[in-house]
Amino acid sequence: MEERAFPLPPGSFEEKFVRSGGHGGQNVNKVATSVQLRFFPRLSGLPYAAQERLKELAGAKLTEEGDILITASEYRTQDQNRQAARARLAELIGRALRPPKRRRPTRPTFGSKQRRIEGKKRRSDVKRSRGGDFE
What's the CATH number where 51 sits? Predict the structure, then answer.
């Protein structure tokens, strides 16, 4: 099943390129390949319920201002990191757009009730057998 991508209006996100940390030698020290994608949910045109779910799903990526900050630095090129960050954002938005399934309350089955009562009886017998005659 293929999901339809939600079109993001211009101005609802911004990309900033910074130097990556870690291994890489001269390439890491000279080239800003890591991307920081900042997404502004309130400017995105997403339904309010989806915005709230998105904030819950974002977790530590959510800033104090209510923006979502995604950092991608696993690749050596800007373009690959940009694509990775956008893919993560699209996946997050896709999950937020799907409303949660409603829980249907169910009753315990007859067999499960019987097993529960039987377990309680067994435990009761064990405890009753521990009692000694203290006279």
Answer: 3.30.160.20
* Residue 22 maps to a domain: yes
User: Which pTM does this prediction carry?
Assistant: 0.63
Three-state DSSP at 38 gives: strand
Q: Is 99 exposed, middle or buried (0-12, 13-18, 19+ CB in 10 A)?
A: exposed
pLDDT at 1 over 60: no
Residue type, 58: A
Q: Give residues with Cβ within 8 angstroms of 106, minimum separation 6.
A: none
Could you give the 3-state DSSP secondary structure of residue 71? Answer: strand
Q: How far apart are CA 16 and CA 103, in angstroms?
A: 41
Q: Return the pLDDT at 22.
A: 64
Task: Classify residue 39 by its DSSP letter.
Answer: E
**How many structural domains compose the chain?**
1
How do 68-72 and 13-18 pair as beta strands? Answer: unpaired
Q: Domain limits at 46?
A: 13-97
Residue 3 predicted with pLDDT over 50: no
Highest mean pLDDT among 4-18, 27-41, 58-72, 107-121: 107-121
